Amino acid sequence: MNPPKGEHYPAAADDLRSPCPVLNSLANSGYIARDGRNITAAELKSAIQYVGLGIDVASALVSRVFQVHSDDDKGPPGSSKAGLRDPGQVNKDGVPVLNLDQVGRPHALEHDVSITRQDRELGDCIHLDPDLYEHFVQAAKEDRYRSKDLGSYRKTRYEEQKQANPHLQFGKFEHYIGCAEASALRCVFGKGVTKGIPEAYVRAVFGEERLPYNEGWTPRKFKAYFPELIPVLLLISHYAWPF
Ligand code: HEM
To answer: What are the start and end residues of every segment in region (Disordered) (predicted)?
Structure first.
């Protein structure tokens, strides 16, 4: 079965998926490979621009994650801790590729204090946790998530995980990654500067890993470039700051 791009089908049992609800939604609607395998940098870049990020953000993110992963900061040339690929991982044409399960690889981008995933030490850090999801849905204010709500919720999550996880790994690097995820979410699914993200969009993206077309969302015509994303990130970080 190869349905057209944009048609939503939940992942099949042997499809690979990531801890990122947005990448999973893109795979479930065919903007990246539905089986989650052998995704090229060009495909990933085009999918995240389609959903609403600018070419500057898409290029910076994709070139980083397409590096070969090294657990060590001083790995071989061209490798990095934030890199997600294995050495020599290419498709049959020799083009570098990535599988979605590698997005969740340990000691790379995946981190503690997620909104809807458990810490690695405590359970499943890849799939949606139904209780965390319910709490996040209840954190909407008047059916919306504004930047303040996202930041304050991240702070609540930090306090919860600090109590629950004696080996919590959460420093400034993880804090800023978490706030960057929330900022991208706010810019891509928000209804403009003051209106926030509708709760129904969050239910679709997190609850069903589905792009919220049925709820009225359309991809932004003017994409979100760094000069928009960074101030939103800093605002979220202000409310989320736990240190
Ligand atoms: C190359 C593209 C992307 C990569 C490699 C990526 C990677 C990741 C990773 C590794 C996580 C898990 C972090 C954790 O442990 O909680 C994650 C979560 C997340 N990502 Fe992405 N992501 C990408 C694109 C996007 C885009 C375009 C958006 C928004 C429009 C987004 C929004 C989110 C959100 C909101 C979470 C938090 C989920 C949670 O905490 O429950 N990501 N992403």
So the answer is: 69-94
Give the domains, in start order, of the chain with CATH numbers: 1-109 (no CATH), 111-243 (1.10.489.10)
* pLDDT tens digit at each of 243 positions of the chain: 689 999 999 999 999 999 999 999 999 999 999 999 999 999 999 999 999 999 999 999 999 999 999 998 888 988 999 999 999 999 999 999 999 999 999 999 999 999 999 999 999 999 999 999 999 999 999 999 999 999 999 999 999 999 999 999 999 999 999 999 999 999 999 998 889 999 999 999 999 999 999 999 999 999 999 999 999 999 999 999 999
Q: Which residues are registered as beta bridge partners of 39?
A: 98
DSSP code at position 204 = I
What span, in angstroms and rounded, lies between the C-alpha atoms of 223 and 188?
Answer: 8
Which residues contact ligand 1 via a Cβ below 6 A?
A: 19-23, 44, 48, 51, 53, 61-62, 65, 103, 109-111, 114-117, 125, 181-182, 184-185, 188
Residue 121 zone, left/alpha/beta (φ > 0; ψ -120 to 50; rest): alpha
Q: Token pair for residue 63? A: 């070139």
